[in-house]
Amino acid sequence: MSDEEMEFSDDDYDDYYGGEYDGDVDHVDPQKNDPEYFHVACLTDTEVERLLNESVEQLSNSIQVTPSLAKLLLHMYNWNQIEIVAGYRQDCHKMLTSVHIKPATPPQQMTNNQQGESEATCPVCLAPMSPDYASHLTCGHTFCKDCWSMHFEVQIKQGMSTGIECMGNSCQVLAPEDFVVPLLKRPRLKEKYQQYAFSDYVRSHPQLRFCPGPNCNIVIQAKECRAKRVTCTACKSQFCYKCGGDYHAPTDCETIRCWLTKCADDSETANYISAHTKDVNIDSFQAVGPCKTVGEYEEIAYCPKCHICIEKNGGCNHMQCFNCKHDFCWMCLGCWKTHGSEYYECSRYKENPNIAHESAHAQAREALKKYLHYYERWENHSKSLKLEEETLAKIRERIQNKVMAGTGTWIDWQYLLDAAALLARCRYTLQNTYPFAYYLESGPRKDLFEYQQAQLEAEIENLSWKIERAEMTDRGDLENQMDIVEKRRTTLLTDFLQV
Amino acid sequence: MSTPARRRLMRDFKRLQQDPPAGVSAAPTENNIMIWNAVIFGPHDTPFEDGTFKLTLEFTEEYPNKPPTVKFVSKMFHPNVYADGGICLDILQNRWSPTYDVAAILTSIQSLLDEPNPNSPANSLAAQLYQENRREYEKRVAAIVEQSWLNFQVSATID
């Protein structure tokens, strides 16, 4: 129960005349009542910084490390303070080596760097360096400060920040913020470093998400990562909290991704050709289909692990994501490790001897029929949504005319706009039921789903029809219809939205 | 003009001359210190023995913070070398360290010749033959070793 409700229940008079709550409606927990309920907070970057700094301060006080080190630890452990404190108290050396803050093997004095001797050589620029102009991380690899600055500059220009490593040969020790920042010469570079580091921290934080809206700097905070609708308070964009894409209930993130890829790529074109022409092998079409491309750019793909956009700028097909260091194959986007010694297995034509060509032909035809059935409906509702936006403009015009003609006041007609908003919301859900049904296996569950889907569809069309022809006298009827549609939608989501 | 990259390349060159590593040699081109020519001799007791393979190294002003682009000029038949001479070697990409110099790059490539990494195939035929038909693989390598002398003589006379 919220504080507000507590306040009201203390005073019956206020409760009754308070006006905010309707006396005969039970106020139940919205979490139970609304399957789409999701509590989030929209934070600005200063608010996020304050939130992160609080965690950093707490950790740095509880295990007595510098704030910079605490920040790096939190980042590497996805901001799980409890785990860090427990691990640190148990074996702080093991914890620090596991996140590359300390080297796995104890530092060795480098042969060419005798302490106290002024003629040591920096292994990077090969110039002599005085001991007071040299520095090193916990691994002991010593370089002159100019070379460190240059190294950081190049790394930051490539978008690196929290992941900048020591320059030593195959040394993976990370450079913490308080080591990097004082060595940066230009203020612009410091700014960039802080900005990239901030993005890294938000990305590693399990409760934070950047708003995917264009040029929007809002960070969304939610207690759990669920595939629910979030509306940004600043840019008003709506999206799924989990995957950051367009909201897609009742379909889950993985399924909608498959569906959208399927709609965008050429696999169904190949099926079409196969089903409608003779003597064509489907597999040969799929092999040349742009399975990895994004849009028109042949040389761009998403990292299969962290989904960051990657451009292929070299000849090698063994890709390593610069962001998450995931190794994958450019050809099939599969994990590189699974390739083993099988080279280019992914692009090689695989023959299936069990399926005779005749049946493949029939299968392609059947698969295409099924896909088209769902796709046409999906596409149709998408178009309807656009058309109903135009209807909204017409409704406004109609309200204007009615008011001018003296049929009711402007306030009397507001219900029609509410109805249009509800219609859009319901149709949006309906559109997203099609990918769900496409991937749903046959059985009683699918039967139930399709029944509920049909019910929802029928009521939505009813509502749409009524909105277009609404008169003042119909208001009760229309509001009744709105209630029915919303109930159908909620029922469907309650039964099938599993996020 | 003296930049950190150019100064470092001069020092690399000095080191190569004072302390030349076995089986490799390199020098900057006459009018551009950012482009080097190099030769790798095929290691002894390998199918590449007696080969003299020419390479080019192209450096940027970000060297040694970024690796140079290294390519074989001589024809090569190797699981990790592309048809255009490009090399798939971790230290030339994501495992690069600014502590590597020209000598370290060339000796790494030299040892790559006899220790190919079939998990990063750049030439799938070479990778396949290396694993499944070593005799045929060695025959193909012997052919490019012979070719390397021809190209070397031709370019030597032109020079």
Characterization of the model:
The complex is a heterodimer of chains A (about 500) and B (about 160). Chain A contains 18 helices and 13 strands. Chain A has helices spanning about 5-10, 10-15, 30-35, 45-65, 65-75, 80-90, 90-100, 145-155, 175-180, 185-205, 255-265, 265-275, 280-290, 355-405, 415-430, 435-440, 445-470, 475-495; strands at about 40-45, 120, 130, 135, 140-145, 210, 220, 230, 240, 300, 310, 320, 325-330. In chain A, the strands form six sheets. A three-stranded antiparallel sheet of chain A has the order 1-7-6. In chain A, strands 2-3 form a two-stranded antiparallel sheet. Residues about 1-15, about 110-120, about 280-295 and about 340-355 of chain A have low confidence and may be disordered. By secondary structure, chain B is an alpha+beta fold. Chain B is globular. In chain B, helix 3 (about 125-130) crosses helix 4 (about 135-160). At the A-B interface, helix 8 of A face helix 1 and helix 3 of B.
Keywords, please?
A: 499 residues, mainly alpha, B: 159 residues, alpha+beta, four-stranded antiparallel beta sheet, 4 strands, globular
- Topology as H/E string of chain B? HEEEEHHH
Strands ordered across the widest β-sheet of chain B: 1-2-3-4
Number of helices of chain B: 4
Low-confidence parts of chain A: 1-15, 111-118, 278-297, 341-353
End-to-end Cα distance of chain B: 27 Å
The average pLDDT score of chain A comes to: 79
Number of helices of chain A: 18
Low-pLDDT runs of chain B: none
Report the strand count of chain A.
13
What does the main sheet of chain A amount to?
3 strands, antiparallel
Broad shape of chain B: globular
* SSE class of chain A: mainly alpha
